[in-house]
Specification:
Elements: H1 27-41, E1 48-49, E2 59-62, E3 75-78, E4 84-89, E5 93-99, E6 104-110, H2 112-116, H3 119-129, E7 138-141, H4 154-163, E8 168-170, E9 176-178, H5 180-190, E10 195-198, H6 212-215, E11 221-226
Parallel strand pairs: 1-4, 2-3, 7-10
Antiparallel strand pairs: 3-6, 4-11, 5-6, 5-7, 8-9
The structure holds zinc ion.
């Protein structure tokens, strides 16, 4: 499941379904929004696993109950039915992974640094340790800034491209750009993950999604995965 901007109680500039406690929004509003998300997913209170995302490559394995203090990491994996994994984004790629046969799911946060540090490969490896097979893993690359909108310096673009080839673009103004989802699809293919679907939406172009590039101070949408 991927959330969008409408449907929450947060005031501007976090209007309205902001799910992050780290962007300056009123904590009580975020709590109401998170409770709404739990109810929409059909979870009991406290069954949503959140991360304190740090643009790294660490993966946390969630057991029977998500920790009350979100771990410092950028990917979560679990085999526990009824526990949901959530990743928060506003331009970075939310990556949801599932091997239904093994009963293993994962969620990763892959922005420029996450792509360069191979956070999604680390998540796949952690899933394999729990019994997943890359050939059976289904992946959704969620809404993110697209390669025509995501401008960055040539130096940064080159660094990401050399670490994870396949994402280098030119933006619509002709500047160096990066298509994060193309880079991730390339990396997943090299890992043997072939079932990859990309949500076509660009966060910077779609006003129903939060975009840090477009708006600066803003909220975060969530991508959520769980085993039933
Ligand atoms: Zn775009």
């Amino acid at each position: 499941m991927i959330t969008c901007r409408p449907g929450g109680v947060s005031a501007a500039p976090y209007d309205s379904f902001n799910l992050s406690v780290h962007v300056g929004d009123d904590a009580a509003a975020v709590e109401v929004n998170r409770r709404r998300l739990e109810q929409a997913v059909g979870l009991s209170r406290g069954a949503m696993g959140w991360m304190h995302q740090i643009h790294g490559d660490q993966v946390s394995v969630i057991g029977s109950v998500p920790p009350t203090q979100p771990p410092d990491c950028d990917a979560l994996v679990t085999r526990t039915v009824g526990v949901a994994l959530a990743v928060l984004v506003a331009d970075c790629v939310p990556v949801l992974l599932a091997d239904p046969e093994a009963g293993v799911v994962g969620a990763a946060h892959a922005g420029r640094e996450g792509v360069r540090r191979h956070v999604v490969a680390r998540a796949v490896e952690a899933m394999v340790e729990l019994g997943a097979n890359p050939r059976r893993v289904d992946v959704l690359l969620g809404p993110a800034i697209c390669g025509r909108c995501y401008e960055l310096s040539q130096d940064l673009a080159d660094r990401v491209e050399s670490a994870a080839p396949g994402g280098a673009t030119r933006t619509r103004t002709g500047a160096p750009g990066l298509d994060l989802r193309a880079a991730l699809a390339g990396e997943l293919g090299r890992l043997g993950v072939v079932n990859v679907v990309s949500d076509p939406r660009c966060t910077a172009e779609d006003p129903t999604l939060f975009s840090y590039r477009r708006d600066g101070v803003t909220g975060r949408q969530a991508a959520v995965i769980w085993l039933t």
